[in-house]
Amino acid sequence: MTKLIHFLQFCIFAAVEIRKTEEGTVVKHTGSQYLVSNLPHWNVVTCVLKGKLRLKDSHTTNPVAVGDRVVYETEDGVTGVIKEVHPRRNYIIRKSTNLSRQAHIIASNLDQVFLIVTLDFPKTKLEFIDRFLVTCEAYKVPVKILLNKSDLYTVEFENETERFYEIYGKSVGYEIIQTSGLTGLNLNVVRERCKDKLTLFSGVSGVGKSSLINALDPDLGLKTGDISDYHKMGKHTTTFYEIHPLESGGFIIDTPGIKGFGLLEMKPEELSHYFPEMLRILEKCRFTPCTHTHEPGCAVKAGVETGEILEERYYSYLSMLEDEEKYR
Ligand SMILES: Nc1nc2c(ncn2[C@@H]2O[C@H](COP(=O)(O)OP(=O)(O)OP(=O)(O)O)[C@@H](O)[C@H]2O)c(=O)[nH]1
Ligand SMILES: [Mg+2]
Ligand SMILES: [Zn+2]
To answer: Which residues pair with 82 in a beta bridge?
Structure first.
């Protein structure tokens, strides 16, 4: 009997010994599998989620997102089970429409976001850009704009390009980098900005996210798609969220093109805090809080009159405010 007990004790001890607990970052999520790596190194382990983690958070469709720091158990160093997700430093989240109950975490623990935008093939709508930027501001993730496919913007786009710089560069204050995956314009600037950082590349389908990442590091060989001639829209080629190591340093997350971008619940009086150009002057409004719609002595409305706040942005603000009130 004692021998048996000793044998059992040995077995338990051996099992505990073999099963190691490790930490890593989720670098890809496909269906039920999560690839986890010990960043900044690149030893990838294929993991599944422990049952109860799957049910943990009913407000999001994905309890574990790319970028999450996780604790997992592994016996062979090749496969493992995720037991715990560390609290997120930050994240970017979206609802597919204003009506959807659940939200999707795009990625977490980001150093910065590059919003990839095009003026044509496809044309990125200002409404989309503004909603995306508001989310970055609300979740405190630094964001830069890459104005991509610059090779296409010949003289007929001169005014549009200038206006784009006036709005997002001069008035709001974001850094804008003109890029082209095709000609290689400013790729060195982008490589420099990506060094030692985890950068999310996001934007609508077809703006050239995967092509740009390939141009930054041709060894990655990511799949790219066409633009439909008729609708001038992308075809949703990238289907997974995935972190890639860049040869020149840093890590980039390629993502599927975003379709709709419903805002998350925020208080109407809070929204203008996420428009940097409004945030700078809103303490001059006579009333606090002010929704900058009907209140007398409103500094934001006065700013629209003088051109300090640009009309395009103010209209975006009003449309988001309306949505917030409609879907509350
Ligand atoms: N003219 C021009 N075309 C580009 C450039 N970058 C990408 N393209 C083209 O745009 C199309 C879409 O490129 P992708 O890299 O697949 O776009 P994506 O943003 O990754 O699209 P999704 O994965 O669907 O979200 C392809 O036909 C590319 O050849 C560019 O800088 N200039
Ligand atoms: Mg892609
Ligand atoms: Zn006001």
So the answer is: 49, 72
